[in-house]
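User: Good morning. I'm curious how zinc ion would be positioned relative to this chain. Could you predict the structure with it bound?
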Amino acid sequence: MHELSIVMSILDIANETVSKHQATGVEAIELDIGAIAGIEPDALDFAWQAAIPGTVLADAERAIHHIPGQGKCLECEITFNMPSLYTPCPVCGGYFTDVVAGKELKIRSLTLAMAES
Ligand SMILES: [Zn+2]
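Assistant: Good morning! Here's the predicted structure, ligand included:
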């Protein structure tokens, strides 16, 4: 299940950020997930429930931004909506496209919980 390795790498980044800033944990995390990044939201949720309790992300409020897929045809250079990776160009029917959006999988923001000093 590759969603679990995704959650683990998010956790790695969170751990690093928390220790770099000497925070006590993460208050909120926002993720960008592209529609054609190959992520199953249910599987991601499941992996999250399995891996996150007891970590710096345990109490973090999680928000997910879904980024719709967009491709650009290399033949006619138009940009079109791409519900899947294999959506052909609506004008010429070609499959030679650049994915311009929708493959994102990244942390948009992390809000750290700081100790009172
Ligand atoms: Zn085209």
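The chain has two helices and six strands. Helices lie at 2-20, 41-51.
Let me know if you'd like a different ligand tried.
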